[in-house]
């Protein structure tokens, strides 16, 4: 029964909203579970796969970028999913592309007055596909994504369109970066549980030689709010070695899943030529176990 907790949370945070709004909120709750493996604040995430969290991802020298990520939560939750993104350079228009994602709960069986399963599995998932655009305007990276969403909760489903905008700006000679983005934005309400507003700031704390290579240390703080319940806080550090290996470690305080608490999350990124591999893990809360994310990106110039 624990594995349907995320579904129950999605319905609870919807409050007294209409049924369609409850389904949309439950779908967004599934995506928040997928985001637990992000070792940096969503607003500050970079790369083609990060388009799903902040569409402002222009400025890369590659003409074509491809990313795919697989997500797996502990058995107590039973959620899994994937993200994929394709971006191409469109000359003066900037970068255009497509994003796709699906996350759902597995092994939910129908029961009656007994815990023994009867009949087929219960389908519970959230699906999204959209078109995205980004461009550098001076020192500011801006972007937008128009997406179609479907949320399925057994025999009922809800469809909706969202439009998200994001921006990332560098200050003080690249020593400071601030970023913000909407996520699944479809209402002007500042307390809509089916959407989020992300913000983040990143500062370069140190840069210099380390073990014979150039290294840089960054501090990050992120915030997720505007969703009708307590804000989420993300505080972390990231170190990059010669542009080849990067390590990230953070602690996240969530206000969206019952009682607030801190949980650690970490990740490693390895760049080999035009390919980048990402491994990330969160330590979980309430002894439910860890969630994992494995990603691969390719850049073609």
Description:
There is one protein chain. By secondary structure, this protein is mainly beta. The chain has one domain (2-300): Beta Barrel (Porin), CATH 2.40.160. The protein is 8% helix and 53% strand. It contains two helices and 14 strands, in the order ααββββββββββββββ. A 14-stranded antiparallel beta barrel has the order 1-2-3-4-5-6-7-8-9-10-11-12-13-14. α1 packs across α2 (19-34). The protein is globular, with a radius of gyration of 19 Å.
Write the layout of secondary structure elements.
Elements: H1 5-13, H2 19-34, E1 64-72, E2 79-89, E3 95-105, E4 124-137, E5 140-153, E6 156-171, E7 176-183, E8 196-210, E9 213-225, E10 232-241, E11 245-254, E12 261-272, E13 275-282, E14 291-300
Antiparallel strand pairs: 1-2, 1-14, 2-3, 3-4, 4-5, 5-6, 6-7, 7-8, 8-9, 9-10, 10-11, 11-12, 12-13, 13-14
Helix pairs in contact: 1-2
Keywords for this structure?
single chain, 301 residues, mainly beta, Porin, 14-stranded antiparallel beta barrel, 8% helix, globular, disordered N terminus
